[in-house]
Write a structure and sequence with these properties.
By secondary structure, this protein is of the alpha+beta class. Helix content is 35%, strand content 16%. It has two domains: 3-159, Muramoyl-pentapeptide Carboxypeptidase, domain 2 (2-Layer Sandwich), CATH 3.30.1380; 181-244, no CATH class. It has helices at residues 8-11, 23-26, 39-52, 65-70, 98-108, 147-151, 155-159, 181-196, 205-213, 232-244, and strands at 3-7, 34-38, 55-60, 84-91, 94-95, 112-115, 120-124, 131-134.
């Protein structure tokens, strides 16, 4: 994973930085052209989005140092490195409690998690260490490292957020085209005719000359038809001619 830099003026705000997120969503609110974003963070956001089967709004992504100071962000904010996002998560059109999201993000392995408000959550993928904080009380790791215990939330409550996997019906086997007896007979007649019209192989040349000269093979009105299949009736005729030959 890496921290990438993109200019909005070069690629546009709609430039996709992951499957469901664009460069404009991570851009600094001060209108800066340069945007930093962590590919690891975007991958984690996609994982979170897939888990709940809903949507994620990024309220604040990358921040320039000056903008971060202006809004009173943490001195060493992960936002200034492009590794953080403040998000609101929705499922079925309704905002999911940030308390539940904090717990879920802890289970999914986000390195930094902060409870901002009932609706908003800070998440980051800092390169080292971890952070678990109730940001109503400051930016320190003040929740004891475990949001489940801090908020009194059971894991079953978080597991209930998981999107149900859509069960795709087994594809129905394609019905084979029904062939009537008359159609089958016609196809066989065509096939046999094509076989009979094929030229004989070179390796049978001497045997063919001998059989023809002895009168064992006399052909039909359509020729010798050497590639045609042989019936029992024809085999008996060949044997009889061979037996009767002088």
């Amino acid at each position: 994973m890496a921290i990438l830099k993109k200019l909005i003026s070069s690629v546009g705000r709609k430039y996709k930085i992951s499957e469901h997120f664009t460069l404009g969503e991570m851009a600094c609110k001060d209108g800066s052209d340069l945007v930093l974003y962590s590919t690891e963070l975007m991958a984690k956001l996609e994982e979170l989005r897939a888990y709940v089967g809903g949507s994620i709004t990024i309220n604040s992504g990358y921040r320039t140092a000056s903008y971060n100071r202006k809004i009173g962000g943490a001195t060493l904010s992960q936002h200034t490195q492009g590794t953080a996002a403040d998000i609101v998560v929705k499922k079925d059109g309704k905002v999911i409690s940030a308390k539940l999201i904090c717990c879920l993000c802890q289970s999914l392995g986000f390195r930094g998690i902060g409870y901002i408000s009932e609706n908003a959550t800070h998440v980051d993928m800092r390169t080292s260490g971890s952070y678990r904080g109730d940001e109503r009380k400051g930016y320190s790791g003040n929740v004891g490292g475990d949001f489940y215990k801090y908020f009194g939330i059971k894991k079953s409550q978080v597991e209930a957020l998981k999107a149900k996997q859509e069960v795709k019906p087994e594809p129905k086997p394609q019905e084979e085209d029904k062939v009537t007896q008359a159609q089958f007979n016609q196809m066989m007649d065509t096939y046999l005719k094509q076989r009979a019209e094929e030229s004989p192989s070179s390796w049978s040349e001497d045997a063919r000359k001998w059989a023809e000269s002895e009168g064992i093979i006399q052909g039909t009105g359509s020729g010798m038809e050497y590639k045609a299949f042989v019936t029992r009736e024809q085999v008996m005729t060949f044997l009889y001619r061979f037996f009767k030959r002088k």
